[in-house]
Amino acid sequence: MSAAGSAERAGPPLWLLAELTYRCPLHCVFCSNPLDYARHDTEMNTAQWLDVLSQARAMGAVQLGLSGGEPLLRDDLEEIVAHAHRLGFYINLITSGVGLTEARARALKEAGLDHIQLSFQDSTRELNDFLSSTRTFELKSKVAAIIKKLGYPMVLNCVMHRYNLPHVGRIIAMAESMGAEFLELANTQYYGWAWLNRDALMPTREDLADAEAIVDHHRARLAGRMKILWVSPDYQDAKPKACMNGWGAVFMLVAPDGAALPCHSARMLPGLDIPFVQRQPLREIWYDSSTFNRYRGSAWMSDTCRSCDEHERDFGGCRCQAYLLTGSAEATDPVCPKSPDRPLVDRLIAKAGASHAPSEHPLKFVPNAARHGALVYRTDGNSRELCATSGMESSCSASTV
Ligand code: SF4
Ligand code: SF4
């Protein structure tokens, strides 16, 4: 497939995710940032970000996500929001809440911020603080009240896994009591730090079925008041997702150092010649770069996918998942029942069922901890350690299961 041929078929990048910084006060064990984020620690300056936004908008981008790390750590966030607002973006701030005072939330609203997505780790202080290795539960609760007071749409997000799935009813009650209009219960997908902590985080099929039944009950009860989105876990769902709506189809991520990527995890795929927004116009990156063209169309697909009726719907599933599980980014996503590698995933699920329930391990809170038992926290020290060792490749990329 030629780059030019792909370019003719590609529409504009409708959705831009600007990861403004990898810095974050929290240390979540499921963080989707790259394991080696500490080696990409340069950040673009304000002028560079404003230029990226202008270029993206000129290409047709309409939705802007501001995330990180923790985007509130950028002193120029208000300036970035104001520029995006002038350009006509719909702007969503994705935040842990740390740093969102009432004055700042007000200033961001005046600058044109449309929407804030606040993350919680759990409905209990104990687990929220344990999973992030920070005392942030009370603070997040205060931030939720500020968001509500200032009239932002209230969107709460909680990443789900075997530690907090038994609390799903309480998480919904917490969101309801905070007046959330929307609650996203996103089951952990295994990339980044969640990949490293996969064995400890993966729930059993029973955990998931019980939680889903509770979600269904509350969804019916809260209809018209609060929407609940349940994001199924890929492994147990056994249905390949249309990852990013297709590689290079509608989504572009720009990392803190200016790397332009087709998804959150693509940076770890081998052989990609990652484009940088400081060196190349965004239009050229989107339409002509080898990275954005690599998995457009169907020429790259395995025979299994190319001959399957579903390939224009799910695009063969997720490239990063295929690579992490099989070592080949071109493979059929192993979560698919038609994949010859599906037994790898079945073995992982069986292993989750056979291991101890987390309640058997006391959740001892330690601020800024590096590890707890088998769990590795997302810390600068751990990231540097992973970068420094030659084991980096086996820790953050393909592994045998
Ligand atoms: S998942 Fe946690 S550690 Fe990662 S960026 Fe979000 S708040 Fe920070
Ligand atoms: S074989 Fe490929 S295209 Fe068909 S359902 Fe599985 S992942 Fe999708």
Topology:
Elements: H1 3-9, E1 15-19, H2 46-59, E2 63-67, H3 77-87, E3 90-95, H4 102-111, E4 115-120, H5 125-132, H6 137-149, E5 154-160, H7 168-177, E6 182-187, H8 192-196, H9 198-201, H10 205-221, E7 227-231, H11 234-237, E8 251-254, E9 260-261, H12 282-288, H13 290-293, H14 303-306, H15 311-314, H16 319-326, H17 342-354, E10 371-372, E11 375-376, H18 380-388, H19 392-396
Bound molecules: iron/sulfur cluster (2 copies).
The site of one iron/sulfur cluster (SF4) has 13 residues, from helix 14 and helix 15.
Outline the structure in words.
The chain is α/β, with parallel strands linked by helices and 401 residues long. It has 19 helices and 11 strands. It has helices spanning 3-9, 46-59, 77-87, 102-111, 125-132, 137-149, 168-177, 192-196, 198-201, 205-221, 234-237, 282-288, 290-293, 303-306, 311-314, 319-326, 342-354, 380-388, 392-396, and strands at 15-19, 63-67, 90-95, 115-120, 154-160, 182-187, 227-231, 251-254, 260-261, 371-372, 375-376. It has a 9-stranded mixed beta sheet with strand order 7-6-5-4-3-2-1-8-9, with helices on one face. Residues 1-7 and 390-401 have low confidence and may be disordered.
Assembly context of the chains: single chain
Number of strand elements: 11
Strand content: 5-15%
Q: Which ligands occur here? A: iron/sulfur cluster
**Unreliable segments (pLDDT under 50, ≥5 consecutive)?**
1-7, 390-401
Largest sheet: 9 strands, mixed
Shape: globular
- Roughly what is the average pLDDT, rounded to an integer? 92
Order the strands across the largest sheet as they lie in space: 7-6-5-4-3-2-1-8-9
